[in-house]
Amino acid sequence: MKADFTRWLPAIAKDSYRKTALSVAGVAALGGLALAPTAAAAPVTSGPHEGAVAAIDLATGKAKAAAPVHQEEQPVESGLTTGSATGRPPAGKPSRDQLIPHGIEGAQSRIPLDDAQLDNARRIVDAAKKTGVGDRGAVIGVATSLQESKLYNLGHLGAYNDHDSQGLFQQRPSSGWGTPEQITDPEYAATAFFTALRNVGGWQDLPLTAAAQTVQVSAFPYAYAQWEEQAADIVQQMW
Questions:
Q1: Model-level pTM?
Q2: 26-54 per-position pLDDT tens digit
Q3: pLDDT tens digit string along 196-211?
Q4: Of 93, 141, 142, 225, which has the fewest CB atoms closer than 10 Å, so is most exposed?
């Protein structure tokens, strides 16, 4: 991300509830995983972060060391990403048409979520409400984080980090997103993302991948689209 976003970012106070970002040591400690280069984070702009996904899956016991990680083959744990794909939405919840007004683009990916990921998703949804981007903005934010970090608050991954990218949205201090401490604060990171999104003219009328790409400036802009359906389910459940 080359543009300087500092003029858009509000000052967000620290709070005692801040979640600790996952670092190489932190991920390894979860399951005694010794990270090798093949299990470390791939560059943020080179696709769906296969290295980071593999490291987290191995550490949390979701995959075996010898087995490749295929997200589309992983079962979705009951109750974690349920939504109302058809029929009327639950009372007080946004409808499917509100959450996905332009229809989904291409094949969809779906992954099971643990408590840490659900908590991070909830922080993104809360930030969407506070910044006024609404339920559609929340879907864009959750889908973007699913792509960038698999909804984990990733700290610096050492030699295998993509430059200085960190946090839920893999934002870079060198691009003006904030300090490492700030961008690994889920509330700050989500608020910064939505503040930048609001500065994209007509973002409400853009397909999800175009809106996300305008903020993130990824080398693989269409990767965000694969998470739209799961993101909509999450937002509908949490809104």
A1: 0.72
A2: 554 333 322 222 222 222 333 334 545 55
A3: 999 999 999 999 999 9
A4: 93
How far apart CA 208 and CA 24 sit, in angstroms, is 31
**Main-chain phi, psi angles of 7, to 5 degrees:** -70, -15
Give me 124's structure tokens: 């993104």
Q: Which of 87, 104, 105, 107 is nearest to 95 (CA)?
A: 87
pLDDT tens figures, 59-73: 444 544 433 334 443
CA 93 to each of CA 84, 86, 135: distance values in angstroms, whole numbers, following the listed order: 9, 13, 9
b/e per residue, 94-103, with b = 16+ CB within 10 A?
Answer: bebebbbeee
* Residues composing the chain: 239
- Residue 94 and residue 237 in contact, taking contact as beta carbons nearer than 8 Å: no
Per residue in 78-125, pLDDT (tens digit) is: 345 544 444 577 888 999 999 999 999 999 999 999 999 999 999 999
CA quadruple 228, 231, 233, 236: dihedral sign = negative
Angle at 82 between CA 148 and CA 63, to 5 degrees: 50
Place of tokens 């659900």: 118
Residue 161's closest CA among 184, 141, 190?
184
